[in-house]
Design brief:
CATH class of the domain at 106-357: Alpha Beta
Order of helices and strands: EEEHHEEEEHHHEHEHEEEEEEEEHH
Strand content: 15-25%
Number of helices: 9
Bound molecules: flavin mononucleotide
CATH architecture of the domain at 106-357: 4-Layer Sandwich
Oligomer: single chain
Helix content: 25-40%
CATH topology of the domain at 106-357: Chorismate synthase, AroC fold
C-alpha cells in the first residue's frame, strides 16, 4: 500500500487538480485546515499582487463523504480565480469571439532562470507561455492541499511536520530579512533563502536501505528538489558534516536508544532512526526581476530584455509551507508502506503493534 499523487493544471488555466490514491478509509479531513495551509502559502513579506487576487480554497470532487475518506481516489481542486482575466488566452478549447484579456499574444522572449527556453526547445513551442504556465510554482497550491491531507494522516500516528524560514537574502533575523526584502524591491531585484522542515514523532523504520528508491533521505531530497527554485537540500547538519571530523559528525546512542545530538537529521542508512527528521532546502533568488535580465527573442534571434510579469521579490515564506507539504507527503507515503491498512483503524493499529514490538517511544 502506498500513496500516489498526480496533479494537473496551469498557472492561469481554470483550475489546479490533484488525485490522491492510497489513502485509508475513515480519515476525517478538515476543510478549514486545508484552506488554512493554502492561505499560509499565499502569505509572506515579499509576495506580489497575484496573492491578493487568489484566495485559494479547496474543493473535493471525489473520495470523500461527509468529511471522511472512502479509501478511493481523493479528487482535489483549487480554482485559479485569476483565470477570469485570462479566459480567452488560457481557454482549454479554441476560444470563441474576439481576443480579450491577458495571454492573447505569444510570448517569444525567454526569461533566464525559468523553463521558457528549455521548454520551447524541448516541446517545439512558439509561445513560451505553453511552458511557463505549468513550470510556474502556482501549482504548488494543490500540492499544499495534498500535504495538508498527508499531515492529517500522519497526525493519526503522532507525527507532526512544520516548516520554518531560516534565511532570506542571507539574513537570519526577521527585521533584517524585511530590510533586505525592501532593499531588493527598491532595486527592482529579488532574493532567495533557506527553509527548514522538522518532523517529530517519526518512528524508526520509515524508508529502507534495501534499494536506492526506498531510501528515505533520497526520497526527501527528491521531494524538496522537486519544488520550483530549490537548488540544494540538506539533511541534518548536511554540507557542514563534510568539514568535521567523524568524532564530531555522528550521533552517539545512549540508553533508551536515544541520541544527544541529531546531526544525521533523523535518518541513518536511508531509514528513519526515531529522532526528529530535519531537512533544509535552499531557494535561488526568483528569476523574474522588475529590472529585466538580458535574453534573446526566440522569434527574431535578436537580443531582448526578459518579460516583466507581476512577480514576487521573495517567496521563501511560501517555500516553507510548500516544503512542509512535500516532506509531509513523503513521510505519509513511507508510513503507508510500513503500516498499510485499508481503514484508518488498521493503519493506526499496525503502528501501535509495531511500537509494542520495539523499545522506542516518541520524544
Ligand atoms: C512558492 C513559490 C513562489 C514563486 N514565485 C515566483 C515568482 O513570483 N516569480 C518568479 O520569477 N519565480 C517564482 N518562483 C520560482 C520559479 O517558479 C522558479 O524559479 C522557476 O520554476 C525555475 O526554477 P527551477 O529551475 O528550479 O524550476 C516561485 C517559487 C516558489 C516555490
Amino acid at each position: 500500500m502506498t500513496l500516489a499523487l498526480t496533479t494537473a493544471g496551469e498557472s492561469h488555466g481554470p483550475a489546479l487538480v490533484a488525485i490522491l490514491t492510497g489513502l485509508p478509509a475513515g480519515l476525517v479531513l478538515d476543510r478549514a485546515a486545508i484552506d488554512h495551509d493554502l492561505h499560509r502559502r499565499q502569505q509572506g513579506y515579499g509576495r506580489s499582487a497575484r496573492q491578493r487576487i487568489e484566495h485559494d480554497e479547496v474543493e473535493v470532487l471525489g473520495g470523500l463523504r461527509h468529511g471522511r475518506t472512502l479509501g478511493t481516489p481523493l479528487g482535489l481542486v483549487v480554482r485559479n480565480r485569476d483565470h477570469d482575466n485570462w479566459a480567452w488566452g488560457m481557454s482549454p478549447w479554441p476560444p470563441d469571439g474576439e481576443a480579450h484579456g491577458k495571454g492573447t499574444e505569444p510570448v517569444t522572449v525567454a526569461r533566464p532562470g525559468h523553463a521558457d527556453l528549455a521548454g520551447a526547445l524541448k516541446y517545439g513551442l512558439r509561445d513560451t507561455r505553453d511552458a511557463l504556465e505549468r513550470a510556474s510554482a502556482r501549482h504548488t497550491a494543490v500540492t499544499v492541499a495534498a500535504g495538508a491531507v498527508a499531515k492529517t494522516l500522519l497526525a493519526a500516528i503522532g507525527v507532526t511536520v512544520a516548516g520554518t524560514v531560516v534565511e532570506i537574502g542571507g539574513e537570519t533575523d526577521e527585521q533584517a530579512q524585511r530590510e533586505a526584502t525592501d532593499s531588493a524591491r527598491a532595486d527592482r531585484d529579488t532574493l532567495g533563502g533557506i527553509v527548514e522542515v522538522s518532523a517529530t514523532g517519526v518512528p524508526p523504520g520509515l524508508g529502507s536501505y534495501a534499494t536506492r528508491d526506498d531510501r528515505l533521505d533520497a526520497r526527501l531530497a527528491a521531494a524538496l528538489m522537486g519544488i520550483q527554485a530549490v537548488k540544494a537540500v540538506e539533511l541534518g547538519a548536511g554540507a557542514e558534516l563534510a568539514r568535521r571530523r567523524g568524532s564530531d559528525a555522528h550521533d552517539e546512542i545512549v540508553p533508551g536508544l536515544r541520541r544527544t545530538t541529531n546531526r544525521a537529521g533523523g535518518v541513518e542508512g536511508g531509514v528513519s532512526n526515531g529522532e526528529p527528521v530535519v531537512v533544509r532546502a535552499a531557494m535561488k533568488p526568483l528569476p523574474t526581476l522588475m529590472r529585466p535580465l538580458g535574453t534573446v527573442d526566440l522569434a527574431s534571434g535578436e537580443r531582448a530584455q526578459a518579460l516583466v510579469e507581476r512577480s514576487d521579490v521573495a517567496a521563501v515564506e511560501a517555500l516553507a509551507v510548500v516544503a512542509e507539504a512535500a516532506v509531509a507527503w513523503e513521510l505519509a507515503r513511507a508510513a503507508r508502506e510500513k503500516f498499510g491498512g485499508d481503514s484508518l483503524d488498521d493503519f493506526v493499529a499496525a503502528h501501535r503493534a509495531y511500537l509494542e514490538r520495539i523499545p522506542w517511544r516518541p520524544h
